[in-house]
Amino acid sequence: MASPMRNLLSDISCYVRCFRVFLAKSTEHQTMQQFVEQQLPGLLASTGRGKSAINILSVGGGAGEIDLQIISAVQASYPGVAINNEVIEPSADQILKYKERVAATPNLDNVKFTWHEETADEYESRMKAEKKSQKWDFIHMIQMLYYVKDIPATVQYFHSLLDAQAKLLIILVSETSGWETLWRKYGSSLPTDDLCTYMSSANIKGILDSFGLKYKIHELPSHMDITCCFTEGDKDGELLLDFLTQTCEFSKNAPPELKHQILEELRKPGCSENRNGKVFFYNNLSVIVVEP
Ligand code: CQA
User: Fold this and answer.
1) Which of 32, 61, 139, 174 is deepest in the core (most CB within 10 A)?
2) Is the per-residue pLDDT at 245 higher than 90?
């Protein structure tokens, strides 16, 4: 008997298992890494000029994989300049992994790390209560806005913390991705609860426009090999399907008709392309760079 569908975030160990398969089957991290190495230095060209220290705020820094690449790119642009890197991350487990990664990485002598074990909301309330308004040179929010309660308020608050030459960088799935097609059509049939809101660059553009903020968008092509999703009983395929639908044990618990429809949808040109007998899901990312 199938149990009701539950959101993946209601079981973090299940989430982590799916996320690992997603990272292995997608170019998500490689795509971000390329952007950080090749395009970020240009975007931050005026940000650190003449400063004795660069203040970076990482909102939802996770285990620091991308954060340390960002720091390395900033170090390369501003050799010898001190970096103050503060991280907002609610998961104690992720913070521990972040600290281990820092300990294992050479050349971080001029970087000071501070971790805040709390959500972006909690950080905002705490800072307001403490009447603190530190300004930042670079704030990044990478694949995290889905998980905040009030997205416009969060974007507005962190934007208000930017220093004069600073940048706010937001990375999330693009409106040209297969996510948009899949979730526009089936999002209402999937268990999002209120742990996670589906959105893409289209929503963020709307929010930034409504505030009259100036921004630029960089589209990054990325894909995910979902061929294994079409082999009945394939373990990786099941985990990827869980990730795509953000549902625990989707194959086991989804109504058969919904599972059938979603598998059909995933093969269509709005979601994926067929190459050499493989199915590649469009995992396109948008990098949104907001001016102060
Ligand atoms: C946790 C939960 C989600 C994470 C995470 C950790 C995440 C990225 C990194 N660490 Cl505990 N979420 C994520 C990653 C890729 C991605 C999306 C979220 O594409 C958004 N899609 C799935 C919800 C929907 C477009």
Assistant:
1) 61
2) yes
